[in-house]
Write a structure and sequence with these properties.
Layout (H helix, E strand, L loop, with lengths): L9 H13 L5 E3 L7 H11 L7 E3 L10 H10 L5 E3 L6
Parallel strand pairs: 1-2, 2-3
């Protein structure tokens, strides 16, 4: 699923995270070129600790800062289905 270049922010990411935590069919979520910051990335990564099907989370070209990497690391530590979390070209 792709929601790209739609000006999504941390509040939108938090809403998506609530759905992602209970979703069992989504394999890829592309949220690149939005306005998601570190808080939104945190909420999405927390959802990944409960989601067992998502394989790709694309957050390229968002406002995520390097301090959010600890949440990425925590998600990867417990979620074996994740193949890629894309964080390139960050503007944070």
């Amino acid at each position: 699923m792709g929601i790209e270049d739609e000006k999504l922010d941390d509040k939108d990411a938090e809403k998506l995270a609530k759905s992602l935590a209970i979703n069992s069919s989504l394999r890829e979520l592309h949220l690149n070129q939005n306005a998601i910051g570190s808080l939104g990335a945190q909420k999405l990564c927390e959802a990944l600790t409960r989601n067992e099907t998502l394989q790709v989370l694309d957050l390229e070209s968002n406002k995520v800062r390097s301090d959010a990497l600890k949440y990425v690391e925590a998600a990867l530590a417990v979620n074996s289905s994740i193949k890629a979390i894309r964080l390139g070209k960050l503007r944070g």
